[in-house]
Amino acid sequence: MASNHLTIFICSLLLLPLVFPSTAAHDETAPIEPMKKKVDVVVEGIVYCQSCKYSGSWSWTGAKPIPSAKVSVVCKNSNKQVSFYKTYETDAYGYFYAQLDGFKMSNNVLDHPLHGCHVKLVSSPLTNCSLLSNVNYGLYGAPLRFKNKVLRGTHYEAVIYTAGPLAFRPARCTPESHV
């Protein structure tokens, strides 16, 4: 009779996880997947209209931000092939925040944004300030800088690179009279 009770007890222990799945023992050999952190690469900067007085220089004196100006972010891989290209528009204060969705690095050193990405001027909505200038290499591609700016969340991180201020210049500047 005792062996019957023992058999019933063992069978009930074996059937318990099937009847009450929450009581099943956790398989300690199965690895627990940690929550992956999403990491974004971001480029930021400001686009100005350079004042006539300082046109042709790299001076920002008298410069005004341009809302709705367009810039492009171009990234090339270690083989000098374009691996990322997208245009971005500045906000009401001339500021752009370019989240590089889809940016990939196949070589962590050579394809790094500091080596492979540049920001170029595309267009200005201001008809009186729409000529490209090469301030901070806006014509050929402003290099990126990292100033230890990182936004962190529980499952999110944005590494932010900065392009130096870029500028369009006025098409017509009246010469100063020295009377």
UniProtKB/TrEMBL annotation:
Q: A GO CC term?
A: cell periphery
Q: Which is a Pfam family this sequence falls into?
A: Pollen_Ole_e_1
Q: Which domain of life is it from?
A: Eukaryota
Q: How far does the signal peptide extend, from start to end residue?
A: 1-25
This protein's UniProt keywords = Signal
Q: Name one GO biological process term.
A: root hair elongation
The protein depicted here goes by the name NON-CLASSICAL ARABINOGALACTAN PROTEIN 30-LIKE
According to its UniProt entry, this protein's organism is: Salix purpurea (Purple osier willow)
